Amino acid sequence: MSVRLKLTLSYAGFLLLAGAVLLGAGYFSLSRGVHPGVIFMVRSHAELFRDFLPIAVTVVVFLLVFGLVGGWFLAGRMLAPLSRITDATRLAASGSLSHRIRLAGRRDEFRELADSFDTMLARLEAQVVEQQRFAANASHELRTPLAITQTLLDVARNGQSRGTDELVERLHFVNTRAIELTEALLLLSRADRRSFAREHVDLSLLAEEAAETLLPLAERNGVTIETAGDVAPVVGSLALLLQMTTNLVHNAIVHNLPGQGAVSVTTAAHRDKVTLTVENTGEKLAPQLVAALAEPFQRGSRRARTDHAGVGLGLAIVQSIAKAHDGDLALAPRSAGGLCVTVTLPAAPPSAGG
What we know:
Elements: H1 3-31, E1 34-35, E2 38-39, H2 45-93, H3 109-157, H4 164-193, E3 199-202, H5 203-213, H6 215-220, E4 223-229, E5 233-236, H7 238-254, E6 261-269, E7 273-280, H8 287-292, H9 314-324, E8 328-333, E9 339-346
Parallel strand pairs: 4-6
Antiparallel strand pairs: 1-2, 3-5, 6-7, 7-9, 8-9
Helix pairs in contact: 1-2, 2-3, 3-4, 4-9, 5-7, 7-9
């Protein structure tokens, strides 16, 4: 039976039960010869039953019909929002995520359910669109090194190669770029799934390690690195947080002024959060460009012209790692040129460090 039919039968059954109780009480009262305000004697129970039975049957039939009709109508009115939610669920199951219930009326259980379902559909639609765009961009990025490799191999097969050493060097460079892109995609996927063990980590130590590791690159580019700040304890993945910090410092080095650039890495601890801030000098950036830098495969104006350009996933990985640790990423252009990047993460509880 449908829910509407069950509600109808329940409503009708309740009316019949209430009517039976009232009729029983009335019959019992009459059989005792008592009526509100009047006392009289009944000649016999048989005569009372004969006179009372038609009235009881009429009342029962009326209550039954009224209960079924009224219950069916009321159940339909009550379940109408549920029908709209069911229709929206079927559309979503068929692949249509753009449909919204938008249930009107006062806020009740059905309205809250419909609003929650609309919110879920909106998030799913946004995620699907983002995944489709990410897949398309990833396919495009992976196709480029594969196409270059195929071209080099065709040239070598046709005997048009200038030399084996040059061919090997070019293939090695293209293959390295493809491996870097693949590893970045895997790292991004790992961060999005939050499939990592958590431990106590000090961001200030990671900042020093990243700066020391990338110091040779900074010296080749003529960029100075300064690190400072407080102890910044968080709970998370040491490998992912180190990758996040390294990506920030690397981006700050390669997107900088040639020969006279500077990078500043600072950490700060607050009562319930810690911050990691990386600033770099450079050319002036438009706010529209800065807002899109954290999107996958978005490159700044200078990245494509450097030998350490990356694969366009540096800040996207930083943002995913920050979100995986319940934090956020903020980007802001510096008035004098360059970029200021701030990662905010929840501070580790006092007991996390033992």
